[in-house]
Amino acid sequence: MKQASLHTLTVCLCLLLSNPGHHLGASPENPLGQPRVGLPPAPFPELAQFTEDGFEVPQPRHHFTFPRDHGSHPAFKLEWWYLTGHVFGPNQERFGFQATIFRKSGKPPSQAVNASKNRFERDEFFLVHTALLNTLSGEFLHSERLARAGWDASASTDTLSLQMGDFQLVLSDPTLNKITLNAHIRDQATFSLSLEPLKPLVVFGENGISRKGNSPTAASWYLTFPRLKTTGTLTLQNKSIPVTGEVWMDHEISSSQLTAQQVGWDWAGIQLDDGREIMVYRLRLKDGSTDPASALSWVDRDGHATMQSASAFSWNGTDVWKSPHSGAAYPLPVQLKATDPATGLPVEFILVPLVQDQELEGTFSDVPYWEGACRVLQNGKPVGSAYVELTGYSGSLTRALR
Predict the structure, then answer these.
(1) Quick count: other Cβ atoms within 10 Å of Cβ 68?
(2) Largest Cα–Cα distance of the chain, in whole Å?
């Protein structure tokens, strides 16, 4: 296989953004994530075992083993661990943050030359995205860092233990699934947080598979902690601020994402004040329509998920925000309509950015995307918090994620 250039690898990493289907649900007692109710999934072709370049494709009914499956999966081409959260200080401070680490392999382990002899020859790269929104000042800080495996970057295959420079994401207590996050944004901000799940792990997808299109390789394993209690310290402008709040964490494993007909996706992770969550992703086709692989999933207070297919919800922008940086036009705020499985009644939510300018400019890839903290309104009243991701509004993502 012809080795990809560093730029191509960087572009691919930068475009793995929080993955469209950040998923569909199960607890460890229901590891396959079977939806309890909801419409049947769209008909898809049988999954391939491998991609054309030799990487494994996630298969249904996989038996997850923890803490091992919280760690890295080198047999798969693409993988990322994604955290977003809303945290609060003691003096009415409110912050939104993102911390994501992406892993991408250029060659499957079976084709790697001398990988066991020289760890610096491994064709594996890591990219870290960090962002912080200060709602009091409106300031939005973000940064990106790229490193090769073995050169100031590593990911354990035995447990959750990721490191890149002084960025660390570690499973500090496997019994209670407690996680520690240490990250920074250049010399502008740092955060050190302790995370503890408030409900069980969710595995999104039919039979444990989150399909992303009609390609036999467009699928992933999608594991999510939809609500983690968070405590820690944020340092901003040399001032340490104790913070508390809640975080959403995804871990997605794949070898291929978008199909040739898709140009991008819209995604939201919503934490409602009533103790439930919603994960929704809309995969956009070239003609502007919604791909049937799109999905919405409700997670109840006990961590059980209910899947609704693309025909059961709608996602629309109520206005447009045009970036002064990239010129991209993002459909914001977002109107989300669905059916509440608890009542069987239609519901409508409006996802309103806390600050409009939360665009990450794509320092390495030159492909911007919008990833931002939002409040959730229902009938004009606040009912929760969310993070929204909008990709492909400044150029198609298809080539990078196939």
Answers:
(1) 14
(2) 61
Strands 329-331 and 139-148: unpaired
CATH classification at residue 205: 2.40.370.10
Q: d(Cα 139, Cα 225) in Å, to the nearest integer?
A: 28
Give the torsion through C-alpha atoms of 229, 266, 260, 112, to 10 deg: -20
Token pair for 18? 């929080």
Number of domains comprising the chain: 1
Instruction: Tell me phi and psi for residue 111, to 5 degrees.
Output: -105, -5
Give dist(CA 23, CA 258) in Å, integer.
Answer: 15
- N-to-C CA span, the chain: 15
Alpha-carbon separation of residue 273 from 204, 287, 336, 384 (angstroms): 22, 36, 17, 5
Residue-wise pLDDT tens digits, 135-152 = 999 999 999 999 988 878
Written as one string, the DSSP assignment of 368-385 is -EEEEEEEEEETTEEEEE
Token code pair at residue 48: 């391939």
* CB proximity list for 215: less than 8 A, separation 6 or greater: 45, 256, 259, 402
Tokens of 145: 């860092």
d(CA 248, CA 225): 6
Three-state secondary structure of 50-67: ECCCCCECCCCCCCCCCC
Please state, in angstroms and rounded to a whole number, the distance separating the CA atoms of residues 245 and 231. 7
Task: List the single range of 283-292, 318-327, 357-366 with lowest mean pLDDT.
Answer: 357-366
Cβ atoms within 10 Å of 398's Cβ, excluding its own: 18
Contact indicator for 77, 255 with CB cutoff of 8 Å: yes
The residue range of the domain holding 55 is 6-401
What is the rounded CA–CA span in Å between residue 257 and residue 248?
A: 21
Can you give the pTM of this predicted structure?
0.88
pLDDT digits (tens, 9 = 90+) for 100-139: 999 999 888 877 655 444 554 558 999 999 999 999 999 9
Residue 1 lies in a domain: no
